[in-house]
Amino acid sequence: MSADIQIMGVVGLYLALSLFVGLRAGKGVSDSATGFVVGDRAMGGVLMYFVTGATIFSAFAFLGAPGWAWSRGAAAFHILAFGILGFIPFYFIGPAASRLGRKHGFVTQAELVAARLGSRPLALVMALVSLLAFIPYLALQMRGSGHVLEVLTRGAIPMQWGAALVYGVVLLYVWRSGVMGVGWTNTLQGLFMMVLAWTLGLYLPYALHGGVGPMFAKIAERDPGFLTLPGRTPDGGDWSWSSYASSVFVMAVGFSFWPHLFQKAFAAKSERVLRRTVVLYPTFQFFLLPILFIGFAGVGFDPPPEQADQILPHLLLHMDLPALVVGLFCAGALAASMSSGDAILHSAASIVVRDGWIVGFGRSLSPNAERRAVRLMLLPLLLVSYLVAAVFPVDIVGLLSYAYGPVGQLAPPVLAALFWSKATGRGALAGLVVGSMVTIWFSRFPLWPVHAGLLGLVANVLLLVSISLLGPHWGERFPRKR
Amino acid sequence: MTPRRAHLALGLFVLVAMLSLTWPLSVWFAEPLPLVLGLPRGLFTICCWAAATFVALLAYDRVLSKDREQEDA
User: Fold this and answer.
1) pTM of the predicted protein model
2) ipTM, 2 dp
3) Topology of A3-393 in CATH?
4) Distances in Å between the alpha carbon of A215 and those of A111, A202, A228, A482, B38?
C-alpha cells in the first residue's frame, strides 16, 4: 500500500469519526434557536474546557506557531504569553453575561451590549466588526487544512479540494447539531491534539538534536540572538520591545472578547462552570509549548522549507517517518483547523441573523424560523470564506495578529455595558467605529513600532468615556425577554 | 482571607504578571542562557507565569466560593 493511500486512510478515519461525533451531538437539544446557538444553556465543565481551549488551538497553532519559532525565534514566545492572562477577564464578565442571558434571552455578545446601552446601530456595527475578523480567520483555517493535505499528499489533493472536503464535513455537523456539534467535536479534537502535540514536540527535538535541552543549547551556541527576547522580525532584524509588548497586551485584551468565545458564556450550564473553565484555562498553554519545540527543532534543518508556515509538514516529509505517523499528524492539523473553524462559522451565522437581522434591523422571527435562518447563513459564510482562502494568499500569523486588532475594540463597549452605569450607546458606538478605523489605518500605515490595536483602544476608550459623560443617556436599557 | 483582600491580591498579581509578560521585568529574563530545565530563560519564565496564574486563580476562586457558600447558608 502506497504511503499516500495510508495517509489518506488515517485522515479519512479521522474525518469519519468527527462527523459521527458531530452528528450525534445534537440529540436531546431543543429545536429552537436557543438550542442551536447556545445548546439550551446546558454545557457542562468538560465541554466548556475543550470548547474554549480548542478554539485557540487553530491552524495558527499547528502551522503558524512552529513557523514563527523557526523563522523568528524568541518572538514566538509571545504566543504563550498573551494566552496566560487573556482569559482572566472572563472570570468576571462570563458569569455577568450568563446571568443577563438567562434573564433576557440573549445569545450573542452584540445583542447584550446593544440592549444594555439601548442602541440598535451598535449591534450592527459590532456584527460588522465581528465578521471583519471572522471571515479572514475562517479563510485562514480553511487554507491551513487544505495546505496540509496538499503538502503531505505531494500535491495529489490540491489545497482547494482539501479545504472543500474538510469544511464539507464541518458544514454537515454544524448544520445538524449546532453548538453541541461544535462542543463534542472540539472535545475529541482537543484530546487528539494534546496527545499529538506532546508526542511530536518531544520526538522531533530528540530525533534531530538529541533532546529539548541540547536543541536549545545548539541554537544558542550557533546564534545567541535568536533565543533572546523579543526575537526577530520576518526579515531577520531585531523585533522591538514596543512591538512585542503591545502585541501581547492587545492580544490579551482582545482574547476574551472574540465573539465566538464570549458566546459560550450563554451556553454554560452555570456560573460555576464558567468560573472553573477560566481557572483551568492557563493549563492549556502547556499544550502550546511542544508546538514551539517543533518549530525550533527545524532550525538548521537542510533543506529549509519555502515558507515558514510549512516547517512542520516539511520536517515530517523529509524525515522518512512511517506513513501512519504522517497521517496522524495530518489528522491533528485538520483537528486544529476544524476546532476553530466550526466555532467561528457557527458563531458568524448566529451573529448575522440575531445581531444583524433581528436586533439591528428590528425584524422578528419565530424560534424555528430563526434556527432555519442561522442554518441557511452557514452556506454563504462558508462560501465567501472559501473564496477568500482559494483566491488570496494569506500569511497565517500576520492575519491572526491583524484580526486581534478589531476584536480588541469590542472590549471597551462590552465592559462598559456590563460594569459602567454611565455608559451610553452613543459613546460606545463612536468609540467602536473610530477605534476600529484607527486600528485598520495604522495596521496598513504603521507610524510607530506598536500594535495598531493599542492605538485603536486608546481612541476607543477616550471617545467612549467622554461622549458617555456628556450624555444624554438614551434608549431602553433592559429589553423584554424573548 | 476576605474576598476584598482576594480581589486586591489577584489585581496585584495580574498587574505584575502583565508587566513581566510584556516589558520591564521580562528584560531581566530576555537572555536565553543559561538554560533552565532545558528551556531558554524567557520561555521558562513564561511557563512559570502560566503555572502561577493557574494557582492564583484557583486560590482566588476558593476564597470567593467559600464566601458565596456562606452567603447562601
Assistant:
1) 0.86
2) 0.89
3) Sodium/glucose cotransporter (1.20.1730)
4) 50, 11, 15, 58, 9
